[in-house]
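Hey,
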Amino acid sequence: MDLSGKVAVVTGAGRGLGRAYAEALAAAGAAVVVNDVDAATAEEAAGTIRKAGGRAVAAPGAVGGTEVAERLVATAVAEFGRLDVMVTNAGVLRDRVLWKMTDDDFDTVIDVHLRGTFSCARAAAVRMREQGEGGRLILISSPAGQRGNFGQTNYAAAKAGIVAMARTWAMELARAGITVNAVVPVAATEMTKTIPAFAPVLEEAERTGAPLPAWLRRDEGMGTVEDVAGLIVYLASGASGEVTGQAIGVGGDKLALWSHPAEKAVAYADGGWSADAIAGAWGEFEPETYGIPAPEVPAP
């Protein structure tokens, strides 16, 4: 994929998945605005891209409100003359079960993930519509937003909302030639290292430098952060011009298209449904599962 002449903003790009996205976009030819809450981390990531022959500039700031979002877009325009791609990756975790989650736990995660995605996408859409040449909004979601996850009320809600925004904006921005898609990545990061079933395998791979085992890459769809970056480059490219309003999963050896909510089964009752009638009919329905399935670790 050749992204020469394109300009991208990647939020939360100082480390982990965001950094892999920024480096891959730059390697494909795009100029990149590297955002991170930590200024030194953002500059180090941008410097690494420049040393590799790419074009990048650091733009530190805590994603969430309008001021930072508009500054990121303004930086892209001032430094590189335009904006073609916005990747909303920045995020934080404040995991707790419902009865222990504080207002601050909830608000912090919603502000960075959900409001941050909204404010950055809005600022980007305004600029892209002014340019009149289309664009790409690539919103980073999570399996937790698709399935729910224990201890992640705030994170799951935000990530589910991001997919809903992708569907909505795909409709609203279609006439402007701006595609909007949600990416559902699974990769070995500092976040996934906290999952008990994965921790020993990831720690062993990190310690020895050995590749991740085939069962993890294929069955669980989990690989390195670099394994996810190809999807970002594809969605930023002209090759994905007809792809919009989708939730696309990627990780390890696995690429997946997530389904959108739809009526799974229906029943009708003349005159409507009483509580007793619903109780009698409910046995005909097969309830949906929920939660991220526990990994099936092969026996040693």
